[in-house]
Amino acid sequence: QVQLVESEGKDVQAGGSLRLSCAVSGNILRIDDMGWYRQAPGKARELVAITSSGGDANYADSLKGRFTISRDNAKKTVFLQMNSLIPGDTAVYYCYANLVYIDYASQYVAQKYWGQGTQVTVSS
To answer: pLDDT tens for residues 89-107?
Structure first.
């Protein structure tokens, strides 16, 4: 069974920093791109950042310079370092991974998985 488990979110003061992590477990053959989305109350889910298997990163334009995505392939974990947080960053943050796993029948299955979501609240 494949799982993505995110670290707990926190309540943070504006200007503060927070690092989120998301660890993949299961009978994983390969992880391709991984990334983060977020969803604020009353808004659609939006892309935050993506990292390729080789470590290339892309960000939402509005977040460049404040957020940094990274990954540890050996630990099957993706991170999101968030700095200079503002109240507008308040949202539930979701990680995802496009991966290939080996199922119970020893078949290779390619699928996108999501983490459970973690609440980040930034207060002024």
So the answer is: 999 999 999 999 999 999 9
